[in-house]
Every structure is written in C-alpha cells, then in structure tokens.
C-alpha cells in the first residue's frame, strides 16, 4: 500500500465521523427547539414576572405599607397602580387610598392595613395564568390576613388590588 492509498482511506474516514457529529448536533438542536416550544409559556412567565427574584412582590408590599404608615405619599405611589387607587386625605394628611366603585368608594386606610412593628408577609406566590401576577398576604393591624394582588407594569411590581378596606357610600 502506497502513501497515497493510506491518505485516501484516512480521508474517507473523516467525513463519516464529521457526519455523525453533524447529525448529533442537529438532533440536539432539534430537541432544544422542541423543548422550548413545549415550555414556551412557562419560559415567557419566567422572564415576564422575573421569577428569578420571587420575593420581589412581597418586598414591594412591605415598602408600600411602610411608606403609607409614615405618611409618605410619593413613595407609596411608586408601589401602587395610581390609575386604580387615589390618595385618601384627612385633615390635609395622607391616610391611605380610595378606589371608586359604582356604588361608593372603597377606602384603604393605613391605620387599618398595617399595625406597629415589623411588617412580615405570611404568603407570597407568583401566578402563571393570564397576564401573570403575584399574590402577597400580609396581616393587617388586627392580625387578619389581607391579600394584595400585584402585576408587573413597566418592569416594576405594582399593587392592583387590595382585598380588604372599608366601603363608604
């Protein structure tokens, strides 16, 4: 066997190995694409709700309640959807928020929403349905659980619903 015959056999083997590698690469790529298609909704929620920081909605509610307890309206406004909630003023002081309903106003007073001492959320979860949201539960001034619903708006969590308050007609 001459030098050219050995080189010809070695050259014939290389394409076969390269072809197996290319087929394996395409197969792995196809599996990745199929997996991404199958889990696309979960992947979308993961990035939309910034699920890598699942404690962020609870931190938002705590900052909101601290700002409200201190009477800091501008700081509290940063954590609430101001299109839904409007400041509640009493004797010229910021005391909470109100939400207009067809049959009256729903008032959320910080004196009722939060007591003295540390604010500790008891439950926090991300909701992977619809547009996505988060639910955070915090005890009110009497120790009763109040649920807060938050949505991601403009890259920040905003409170869009408070399941408490008092109806004023």
Q: Give the total of beta strands.
A: 8
Major sheet characteristics: 4 strands, antiparallel
**Distance between termini?**
103 Å
Q: Tally the helices: what do you get?
A: 5
Percent range of helical residues: 40-55%
The CATH topology name of the largest domain reads Nuclear Transport Factor 2, Chain: A
Radius of gyration: 28 Å
CATH C-level class of the largest domain is Alpha Beta
On the 0-100 scale, what is the average pLDDT? 83
**Overall 3D form:** elongated
Poorly predicted runs are none
Structural class: alpha+beta
Describe this structure in words.
The chain is of the alpha+beta class and 169 residues long. The chain contains 5 helices and 8 strands. The protein has helices at 3-38, 40-48, 56-69, 73-77, 110-113, and strands at 86-90, 93-101, 104-109, 123-127, 133-139, 145-153, 156-163, 166-168. The strands form 2 sheets. A 4-stranded antiparallel β-sheet has the order 1-2-3-8. A 4-stranded antiparallel β-sheet has the order 4-5-6-7, covered by helices on one side. The model has no long low-confidence stretch (mean pLDDT 83).
In short:
The chain has 5 helices and 8 strands.
Keywords:
four-stranded antiparallel β-sheet, 2 domains, single chain, 5 helices, 169 residues, 8 strands, elongated
């Amino acid at each position: 066997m001459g030098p050219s015959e050995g080189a010809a056999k070695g050259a014939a083997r290389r394409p076969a190995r390269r072809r197996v590698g290319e087929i394996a690469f395409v197969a792995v790529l196809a599996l990745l694409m199929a997996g991404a298609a199958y889990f696309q909704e979960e992947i979308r929620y993961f990035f939309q709700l910034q699920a890598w920081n699942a404690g962020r909605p609870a931190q938002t509610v705590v900052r909101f309640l601290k700002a409200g307890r201190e009477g800091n309206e501008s700081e509290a406004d940063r954590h609430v959807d101001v299109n839904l909630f409007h400041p509640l003023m009493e004797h010229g002081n910021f005391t909470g928020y109100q939400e207009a309903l067809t049959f009256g106003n729903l008032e959320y007073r910080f004196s009722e929403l939060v007591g003295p001492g540390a604010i500790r959320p008891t439950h926090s979860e991300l909701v992977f349905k619809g547009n996505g949201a988060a639910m955070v539960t915090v005890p009110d001034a009497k120790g009763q659980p109040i649920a807060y619903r938050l949505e991601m708006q403009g890259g920040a969590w905003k409170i869009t619903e408070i399941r408490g308050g008092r109806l004023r007609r």
